[in-house]
Amino acid sequence: MDSIIEKCTEQVIEIYEQFDASHDFDHILRVMKNAEEIAKTLQEADLSVVRLAALLHDVDDPKYQTVSRVSAKELLQSSGADEETAVRVLETIKSVSFNGGNEEEIVSIEGAIVRDADRLDAIGAIGIARTFAFGGARGRKLYDAKEKARTHMSEAEYRSKNTSSVTHFYEKLLLLKELMVTEEGKRLAEERHAFMLAFLDQLKREVGLEG
């Protein structure tokens, strides 16, 4: 399995380096680190599936479909993964996306681990940095005092509006702590969530935002 992971890694580096800084290969490495940390607390997890899913989880992201020309399934096949492994990895990846709160059901411990690992990288100091990196890449405003955070969105609605970066905190990032699945994920999310709240409080004071 190590050779499959190595081959996948070689292929995805080139793909992710075409993405903006919020979803580049450094993001993948951080998610991998988070996933391995969480997996240590869950002995029944298949680490090979966890690592492959962490490596490939953003390849099919709709936000970057114009960049990536190859699917996660194709990468697994070209790296020598058998059918059973490919199915388990793709099933795990399917569990990860937030999609405006329209999440897929988690059907495996590996799915829970990679979902929490990815969400940890969406919050805290690194989450703040990634939010503004993505917003800058997409031409989003830093904040909009008149903009109201949306709730109960469909996936299409979530992806369709170019809301400000600060609004994104209220539509996604501040919700993630309560959506963590693993006990270790919940523990690690606490400090990061608190840091985001402190950041937003300071931002409000500096720019005069309400609410």
UniProtKB/TrEMBL annotation:
It holds the Pfam family HD. InterPro entries: HD/PDEase_dom, HD_domain. SMART domains: HDc (SM00471). The keyword Hydrolase applies. PROSITE patterns: HD. It comes from the Bacteria. Residues 24-123 form the HD domain. One of its GO terms (molecular function) is hydrolase activity. Keywords: Hydrolase. This is Phosphohydrolase. It comes from Sporosarcina luteola.
